[in-house]
Amino acid sequence: MTDSAPAKSPTGKRRFGGTHAQIRSALSFYKVLAYATGVMLLLVVVEMIAKYGFGAEIIAGGSAGALGLVDEAQVDGAGGFNLSTAVLIVHGWLYVVYLIADFRLWQFMRWPFSQFVIIALGGVVPLLSFIVEKRVHRRVEEELAAHPEAKARY
Asked: How does pLDDT run across 30-84, given as a tens digit for each residue?
């Protein structure tokens, strides 16, 4: 993670883009989305292994039973719910919301743009969202604790 200098006012005090309460709210929203995106990304990996490793899709119900792999050529006739497609769609939209949470936190913290990109990459690489979330959470808490004077923003 980059250790670029955060935004400072002319008096030398750390400036945030919101109050401590707003930042903590954005941090909580980001944390939930980071974990949800990480879990969905792991499910995408499972789906890709099924599709490209076994040439099958994951189907719930229908001829596959409760949950099973169905050959790609037979998916249309298998009936049931195509979990492979659902996982891809849900992860895609969840990543969009993750980027919104990332942007909101980045904006409140007034970090450099490179920090936004690093956090955004957390939702692309499997397991990275868990690692990035932990580091971002720690950094936000440290900055808030180090600058209590920034509480009275409004």
From this structure: 999 999 999 999 999 999 999 999 888 888 887 767 877 777 777 777 777 888 8
State pTM to two decimals. Answer: 0.82
Rounded-to-integer distance, Cα 25 and Cα 32, Å? 11
89 vs 1, 96, 135, 146, CA distance in Å? 30, 11, 28, 41
Closest by CA to 83, choosing from 95, 70, 96, 93, is: 70
The CB-side HSE value for 89 (13 A sphere, CA atoms) comes to 5
Residue 13: both structure tokens together: 């005090």
Write out the two tokens for 98.
């993750």
